[in-house]
Amino acid sequence: MTTPLPERAGRRCHNVLNPLHSTHYFSPDLGRELAAVGIDDSRGAYFAVRAAAMGPVGPGTVTATFYNFRHELVARHVPEVWEKASPETVLAARARAVDATLRRLLGEDVVASEEMAEAAGLALRAAEACTRTARPLYAAHADLPVPDAPHLALWHGATLLREHRGDGHLAVLLAAELDPVEALVSHTATGKGMAPKWALGTRGWSRADWEAAVERLRGRGLLDAEGELTQAGVALRQEIEVRTDQLDRAPYEHLGAAGVERLTELAKGLLMTALAAGAFPEGMTGRG
Predict the structure, then answer these.
(1) Phi, psi of 131, deg, nearest 5
(2) From the CB of residue 52, how many other CB atoms can be counted at a distance below 10 Å?
(3) Taking CA 36 as the corner, what is the angle to CA 35 and CA 39, rounded to the nearest 5 degrees?
(4) Residue 6: its pLDDT value, please?
(5) SS3 of 229, please?
(6) What's this model's pTM, rounded to 2 decimal places?
(7) Backbone angles phi, psi at 39, to 5 degrees
(8) Contacts of 261 (CB under 8 A, 6+ apart)
(9) CA 76, CA 53: separation in Å to the nearest integer?
(10) Percentage, residues of the chain above pLDDT 90
(11) How far does the chain reach from its first CA to its final CA, in angstroms?
(12) What is the rounded distance in angstroms from the CA atom of residue 249 to the CA atom of residue 238?
């Protein structure tokens, strides 16, 4: 008889795997590798490496699957990035950047450790239960081969789990009737989302776009006069997470309670090491 999965166990596991996946987005290694193949703009590099698994798609597909970026920003870089480097070239550059980033942040001993191999096996086993239906970013990455090196296999598994959850999360945001900017604003208001300066600096929205979204959320009774979440706003953000958990439960139920607990433990240790090595810039999250 299997042990029931504790409430939010999958979310806790995601919360340590997702940052491990994301380390390369903030790594100088990614900029160097993408510049070497002709993509020297940081925003273009992000769109290219995350979309490359889908092939040489147009800006509409990227805007649809990434959700919270202004379409005009996407269109300034896509499909131009594919004229500079093919998706296959981008994927190879991304793999080199991930390899260099994880080796630098974690150290060679950790990369070669038994714990790394164990974590990779657990993440990939969880991903066996992910489903492609209505999950375009997950499905595209699921068609890619699993790397042989354990640290890259762990990163690949974390990517599959991240994009699987993310695709489901977008469906929940649509059901909650939160447009891209409203989703950013309300998430920031929880104190856990991207700080406004980071959202505005990377997603292409203006301060006027942000303030207009604030007013719309106030009109729905989700934000108060100070921009804080109301009780209704808190309840909505909590419901979004619960619904996202429900849509994402299959991989963690497949792995089982003991496996999820062990993967969370291992990934948390790796993440703490990466954070101590300066994996992310200061001031990324919060309300400031």
Answers:
(1) -120, 145
(2) 25
(3) 35
(4) 93
(5) strand
(6) 0.95
(7) -110, 100
(8) 9
(9) 20
(10) 92
(11) 48
(12) 16
